[in-house]
Amino acid sequence: MRKQITRAGKTPIWSQLRGQNNEGILLAVLIVLVVVMSIVSRDFLQISTLFAIIRSSIVPLIFALGVLLVIISGGIDVSFAAIAVFSAYATVTAQLTFAVDFGLIGSFLFAMVLGTLLGLVNGYIISKFRLPTLIVTLGTQGIFQGVLMTYVGSRYIADLPAGMASASTVNLVTLPTANGVALLHVMIIPAVVLTLAVSWLLNRTMFGRFIYAIGGDEESARRAGINVKSVQMRVYMIVGVMAAIGGVIYMVMGRSASPKELIGGELDIIAAVVLGGASIFGGYGSVKGTVLGVLLVQLINNSLILVGVPSAWQRAAVGVLLIVGVSIQAISAKRARKQVGVLPEETVK
C-alpha cells in the first residue's frame, strides 16, 4: 500500500482520516446517508431500524469476508452463494431424511465439511490449471446448483430440524420501543467472531501476507518462494467454510430451507467488498472497509424501501455503486503510477 508523506516524513492528516483503503471516506458517506434519511423519514432514526440493518447485514457480511480473501488474492468468486445454499440445504435434508438431529453446532460442522469440499473443487481447478477465477467459479456455480436440485432436493422445507429451529427465535438483545419490540438476533455473534478471525488472519499471520503478495504480483510471489497453489487452495477452502456458515445462518434466521435461495445476490456482496476499498485487481483490501461496505449497501437498500422505491431500482443502485467503486480504483491506480514515475520521493512503499 502506498502512503503519501510530507517532506518532514509525516503522513498528512487527510491521508490519516481517509485510511489506507479509503475507509474514512466510506464512513463519511455512511454518516451523510444516515443524516439524510433521518430528515426524509421520521421512522428511520430508531433502534428497530438499526437492528433491522444489522440483521440484514449478518449473512452478507460473512459472504463478503470470504469474497474479500479471494479479491485480495487477485481472483473473483461468484460461486459462494451456490456453496452456501448447497451446504445448508444438504445439511437440513440429511437430518430430515435419516430422522436425526445434529443439533445447532453439529449442523454447522456438517455444513462446513461440505463447504470445504466444494471450496476445494474451486481451489484445485484454479491452482492446478491456472484458469481465470471468474470463469471457473461461474462454471462451478452452475454445477453445484444443478447437483443440488437433481440429487439432494428441490422442495421448499418449512420445518427445520429441532436443533436449528431452536435458534431461529433466539435474540441477543430485546428492547421495547414505541412501535413494538426491537430484536437483535443471536446470529450476530458468529458474524462478529468471523470478522475478528479474518482480520487476525490478514494482519497477524504469514498466510495473510502471502494472500496480499499473490494478489499484488503472483509471479513475484512465486519467485519469492511462496507456494502459490497451496495458498490459493486454502483460500477457496476457507471461502467454502464461510459460505457454508452463512448459508446455515440464513436458513436458521429464515426458519426454512429452499434450494433456490441466495443465488442471484452475488452482485451486492462483490459491490460491498469493492466499495470497502478492496482492489478488483488484487493486493489491497481490509476487513474494516468490507464491514463499512456491507453496511452501506444494506443501508441503501433499507433506505430505498423506506422511501418507496421499487425493489428493481435497488439492484440498479448497487450496480451503479459497483461501477463507481471500480472507476475510483482505476483512477487512483493511474494517479499512483504517475506519482511514482514523476515524484518517487513523494511516496513510500
UniProtKB/TrEMBL annotation:
Keywords: Cell inner membrane, Cell membrane, Membrane, Transmembrane, Transmembrane helix, Transport. It comes from Actinotignum timonense. It comes from the Bacteria. The chain crosses the membrane at residues 24-41, 47-71, 78-98, 104-126, 133-158, 178-202, 235-253, 265-284, 291-310. This is ABC transporter permease. It holds the Pfam family BPD_transp_2. It is found in: Cell membrane. It is a multi-pass membrane protein.
